[in-house]
Amino acid sequence: MSSGRILGSLFAAFALLALVLAASGLYAVVSYAAAQRAKEFGVRIALGATASDIVTMMLKQTGKLVAIGLVLGLIGGRALASLATALLYRVSPSDPATYVGVAVTLGSIALLASYIPVRRATAVDPVSALRLE
After folding, report:
1. pLDDT in tens, 22-81
2. Are 54 and 118 in contact (CB under 8 A)?
3. What is the dihedral of CA 5, 8, 10, 15, to 10 degrees?
4. How many degrees, rounded to 5, is the angle at CA 89 between CA 109 and CA 67?
5. Smallest Cα–Cα separation from 116: which of 24, 22, 48, 44?
6. Taking 80 as the threshold, does the pLDDT of residue 124 lie above it?
7. Backbone angle region of 90, left / alpha / beta, with phi > 0 → left and psi within -120 to 50 → alpha
8. How many angstroms separate the Cα of 41 from the Cα of each of 1, 30, 112, 132?
9. Which long-range contacts (CB under 8 A, 24 or more apart) does 54-59 make?
10. Residue 21: pLDDT above 70?
11. Residue 37 has what DSSP assignment?
12. What is the C-alpha to C-alpha distance for residues 109 and 112, in angstroms, rounded to an integer?
C-alpha cells in the first residue's frame, strides 16, 4: 500500500508542477501580447473605451482559446484514461466529477493568469500612446 501512496504523491507533485508551469507560461504569453498591444489599448481608451471594456475584450479572446484547449484536453484525457485504469483507485476512468473539476480548475487558473497582465496593460496613458502613433 505504501508504494501506491508514494506513486500517488509523486503524481500529485508532478501535476502541481505542471499546473504552475502552465499558468506561468500562459501569464508570460498573455503579458507579452498585452505589452505588444499597449498602444492599441491607449488609443482605444483615448477614443472612449473604458479599461473594463478592454479587459473584457481580451478575456473573451483568451477565453475562447482556453475553451478550445479544455475541450481538446478533455477529449484527449478521456481517450487516454483507459491506459491509466490500473493506476486508479476507487475512481472510474470516465468519472464526470473529475473531468468537471479539472476543467473548472484549469479554466479558472488560465483566466486569472490572463487577467493580471491585461489589467496592467490598460494602465497605459492615452496621451503617450497617441504620441507614439
Report:
1. 889 988 988 888 888 888 888 888 888 898 999 999 899 989 999 999 999 999 988 888
2. yes
3. -160
4. 25
5. 24
6. no
7. left
8. 56, 14, 20, 12
9. 54/118, 54/121, 54/122, 55/115, 55/118, 55/119, 55/122, 58/30, 58/34, 58/114, 58/118, 59/111, 59/114, 59/115, 59/118
10. yes
11. T
12. 5
Measured CA distances, 122 to 2, 69, 86, 133 (Å): 51, 26, 49, 17
Three cell numbers at 60? 473573451
Q: Which three cell numbers stand for residue 115?
A: 487577467
Residue 129: pLDDT band (50, 70, 90) is low
Cell match 478550445: residue? 68
List, as one string, the DSSP characters of 62-127: HHHHHHHHHHHHHHHHHHHGGGGGGG-SS--TT-HHHHHHHHHHHHHHHHHHHHHHHHHHTT--HH
